Amino acid sequence: METQESFIIEGLAGERKLTGEIKVGGAKNAVLKTLAGSVLFADEVSLERVPGIEDVSRMCEALEDLGAKIEKGETGKYKIKTDGINSSVITPAIAKKMRSSIVLTGPLIARFGSVSFPFPGGCVIGKRPIDIFLDAFKKMGAEVKEEDNNFTVTASGGKLHGAEIFLRLPSVTATETLMMAGVLATGTTVLKNVALEPEIASLGEFLNSCGAKIEGLGTPVITIEGGELLSGSEKTYLTPPDRIEAGSFVIMAALTAKDLKISDCDPSQMDALLESLISAGVNMEIGKDYVRVFDNENKTFSPVEIKTHEYPGFVTDLQAPMSIFLTQATGQSYIFETIYENRLNYLETISRFGARVRVLDSHRALIDGPEVLSGKEVESPDLRAGLAYVIAGLIASGQTIVHNVYYIDRGYEKLDERLRAIGAKIKRAPREA
Ligand code: EPU
Question: What's the per-residue H, E or C state across the chain?
Fold first, then answer.
C-alpha cells in the first residue's frame, strides 16, 4: 500500500559516527526477473533471500493478478505456482506502477502464445522505450498490435520460434525477457550484444538448473535451445546480494562511518565503484563477502571522474549516491551519465543542500567540493536519487526531511531501521499536511 511517509534525519554535520555492521539484502534487479521467470515452470518455484521491498510486492501482485499462487514465508522464502495462470493480459494499472513488469511479457508469450500489456510509461529518469523487445518478438514470429498505447503480441501458430537477434543496445531487461522467451520457443534463439549485468547470469543459471538450455551467460552472445516447461522441484533460487544496495552503503560509510562493515555482499561485482572510491582516497578493507570502511576521519578526498557504463563499468544506479560523495571531495569532479537521458535532474535538489553543482547538459555535470551541506526538506523523485538525499541528510548539519519514502522502499528494505541500528538518527513519520 502506497502511504505518504517521510524520513526525518538529524545530520551528523560531517562527523563520522556510524559503527557496526549492516547486512546487504537480496538483489532487487535479480529477484524481480526470477519471479517473472516462474511463469516458465510446470511446478512450484522456491526462492530464498527475497528482499522485503515494494517492487517485489508489485511483481507478486502482477503474478497473482494473472492467476499465480504465491506463499510468502517469514524470512524471505517464497513459493510460487503458475500452473493456475489463466490470463496473459497484464493489468495496466499494475504494469504502470513498475517498469520491470515488462519482463513478464517474455515468459507469458512463450508459454501462452500471446500477451497484452500497456506501454510501461514515462519515468523520471528518461523515456525508456520498448522497441528492442517488440522488434525481437517480431523476429521470433509474433505479430505486434498497438492500440491506445496498449500492445498485444501474438505468436503465429501459438508458439514463438527461435531467431537470431541483435540488440540495438545491451538492454538489461530486454536481454532477460528474450532469454526467457527463448526457453519455451521452438528451435534456437541467438541473442547478440546482450547486457552483461550479473543478475542476468544469475537468472540464466537458475533456469538451466531447472531444465533450460542457455549457453554463453556472462558473454555478449547468449544461445538458447528451446524446450519444455521447466521443473523447479528440489531447486531453490538463492537471491544474490544486491550490489547497488551494497554500493550505496559503501558510499554512505565513506562519508559518515567511524568503522562500518557492509556484510553479505559480493565486492567482486563492485569493482568500478570500489576503484573510484579508493582512487579518491577512501580507506577500506575488501573481503570476499564484505567491505569494511574505516579510518576516514580528517581525510581529504580527491575529485574523480564518473562515467556510467554497462556492467562491469560504473553502474548508473549508483551515480546519484556517488554525487553526494563528490560534494565532499576537494576539487572538481565530473559526472557523465551515458545510460539515461534524465538521470541528472536530482542535482538541482542537491544544490539546494548547498552543493556546488553545474549541470552542463542532460548527461554531464561538474561538482566542486568540499562543501558543507545543510539540511533541507526534499521530495524523493525515484529510489536512487532518494537514497542520495538520505546520504546528503546524514552528512548535513541540521534536519533533513525526505518525502515520498515509498520510492526508497521500492528498492531498500527497512532502510530507516537498519541505519538506526548503526547509529544514524533517522525516523519514519507520516507526511505532515
Ligand atoms: N532502451 C531502449 N529500448 C528498449 C530498451 C531499452 O532504447 O527497448 C534504452 C533505455 O531507454 C536506456 C538503455 O536502453 O536508455 C538501457 O536501459 P536498460 O533497458 O538496460 O534498462 P532496464 O533494463 O530498463 C535495468 C534496471 C535499472 C538499471 C538499468 C541499467 C531492472 C528492473 N532495472 O533497467 O535499474 O538502471 O537496467 O543498468 O533491472 C534501478 O534499480 O533503480 C533501475 C532503474
Answer: CCCCEEEEEECCCCCCCEEEEEECCECHHHHHHHHHHHHHECCCEEEECCCCCHHHHHHHHHHHHHCCEEEECCCCCEEEECCCCCCCECCHHHHCCCHHHHHHHHHHHHHHCEEEEECCCCECCECCCCHHHHHHHHHCCEEEEEECCEEEEEEHHHCCECCEEECCCCCHHHHHHHHHHHHCCECEEEEECCCCCHHHHHHHHHHHHCCCEEECCCCCEEEEECCCCECCCCCEEECCECHHHHHHHHHHHHHHEEEEEEECCCHHHCHHHHHHHHHHCCCEEECCCEEEEECCCCCCECCCEEEECCCCCECHHHHHHHHHHHCCECEEEEEECCCCCCCCCCHHHHHHCCCEEEECCCCEEEEEECCCCECCEEECCCHHHHHHHHHHHHHCECEEEEECHHHHHCCCCCHHHHHHCCCCEEEEEECCC
Per-residue pLDDT of the chain (433 residues; tens, 9 = 90+): 456 999 999 999 999 999 999 999 999 999 999 999 999 999 999 999 999 999 999 999 999 999 999 999 878 999 999 999 989 999 998 888 888 999 999 999 999 999 999 987 556 666 678 999 999 999 999 999 999 889 999 999 999 999 999 999 999 999 999 999 999 999 999 999 999 999 999 999 999 999 999 999 999 999 999 999 999 988 999 999 999 999 999 999 999 999 999 999 999 999 999 999 999 999 999 999 999 999 999 899 999 999 999 999 999 999 999 999 999 999 999 999 999 988 999 999 999 999 999 999 999 999 999 999 999 999 999 999 999 999 999 999 999 999 999 999 999 999 999 999 999 999 999 987 6
| Alpha carbon of 310 to ligand 1 centroid (Å) | 10
**Domains in the chain, start-ordered, CATH in brackets?**
5-25+241-430 (3.65.10.10), 28-238 (3.65.10.10)
Distance (angstroms) between ligand 1 centre and the Cα of 21 equals 31
123 is catalytic: yes
| 318 Cβ closer than 6 Å to some ligand 1 atom | no
Which ligand 1 atom is the nearest neighbour of the CA of 131?
8
Q: Is the CB of 27 under 6 A from ligand 1?
A: no
